[in-house]
Every structure is written in C-alpha cells, then in structure tokens.
Amino acid sequence: xxxxxxxxxxxxxxxxxxxxxxxxxxxxxxxxxxxxxxxxxxxxxxxxxxxxxxxxxxxxxxxxxxxxxxxxxxxxxxxxxxxxxxxxxxxxxxxxxxxxxxxxxxxxxxxxxxxxxxxxxxxxxxxxxxxxxxxxxxxxxxxxxxxxxxxxxxxxxxxxxxxxxxxxxxxxxxxxxxxxxxxxxxxxxxxxxxxxxxxxxxxxxxxxxxxxxxxxxxxxxxxxxxxxxxxxxxxxxxxxxxxxxxxxxxxxxxxxxxx
Length: 259
Known about the structure:
Elements: H1 6-21, H2 27-41, E1 48-52, H3 58-66, E2 71-76, H4 79-89, E3 95-99, H5 107-110, E4 117-123, H6 131-141, E5 145-156, H7 164-181, H8 190-198, H9 204-215, H10 227-237, E6 239-248, E7 251-258
Parallel strand pairs: 1-2, 1-4, 2-3, 4-5
Antiparallel strand pairs: 5-7, 6-7
Helix pairs in contact: 1-4, 6-10
C-alpha cells in the first residue's frame, strides 16, 4: 500500500471538513458546544473519551486541542477515513484510532480500555445506524461507560414525527442558515468528495478496501432521523437525564447521563 503523507492526508481532511460544512453551516459552533460540555461535565481534567463514528478524527483532534490531558479512543470502520486521521495524528499523545464496526457485537470489549470511559461523543454519524442497531450499540456502550458518564451526540435529529409543524420550522431555520453561509455557492457534497478520493491514485488501495467492506454492509441511508428514536434508545439503554444542550433548527447536540 502506498505511504500516505501527513500533508496529503491533511489536505483531504481539510476538504472533508469543508464538504461537511455544506450540511452543517454551524459545524464549528456545534463542535465548540460539545467540547464545552465535555470540559464542564466529565468531572476531571484527564477524561477518557470515546469518539463513536469518528471519521478522520475532526472532533477528536479539536477535543484534544482544548483538553490535552484527555485520552480519546476514536472508533470507526472506514479504512480510508481512519488512515487519513492516523496519518495526520501519528504519534499524538492521548489519541488512538480503533477499527471497529459499532453494529458488530463485542466492539466495546475489544477496545481494551484501562478503565470505564467518562464520556462518549459522536458527531454526524449515528443517524446512519438503524433504530435496532442504535439500541444495540448504546446497550454495549454502557458496558464501558462509568455510572454518571456523559453521552453527547451532535447530529440532525428531527422532531417532525411528533410535531410536524415544528419539524417544518426546524428545517426552514437550517435551510436559511445554509443559504446565508453559502450564498456564493455550496462546497462540494459528500458524493463529490468520495468520487474525488476514488480518483486519487494515492488513495486507490484504501478506496478498494473501503469498497470491499461497504459491499458487505447492510446500509439504507439516514435511518435514525428522528429525535424521538434517539431519546427512546437512550432510555432503553439506562440513560436517565436526556436533553438538548444546543440547537439550530434540526441540528442538535443531545446530551444524556448514564444511570
């Protein structure tokens, strides 16, 4: 496999962050709110944090910029995104990337954590899980999350299934924020980013590895779209207090306390 340089990987991550902003014009604000919650609620300056569906580590790296004493285990099953994150962060104290599918039983135990995690975070990832996989994943998460530990999930979570008119307003608020931010033209979208990555010879072997893995996956798009789905799954897994810590339209930071 060709060696992925730090510079090349950083260029792809910068481009990844840009295309993500096309879906989340206030992405950095949500990152800030999430990290504020970790800093305020972890209960220690050196928390053990799990980043679920970490992608190339955009959240993990920002979290460690703020909390250098933290230990972050960044978990994903995409070989290309993990390779990008690993190339940019190689040797960074406190950060470890772990290749695990959150839908597969045993992923939590396979992390080999030295102690229960203080916080689990995720951003723009868990909507891909089916409601059944989301419930199973959260149940397994609680096996490695300490009592009183935090769960923080930033994602699009709609209220339209229980409040249709409010759901429409949430989407309208989001659409107007996007139009203001990108009035001069939208950045490339998710599909265009992946098409470009697939055309880069330096990423060819990683793209092939990803295709082999994705080909065997049962994936049907954004399956856990509604806020009620996430709240119900958290309650079933044993989380007590659950609420929205930050919101802009249907883009939310959902927080929950275990136990």
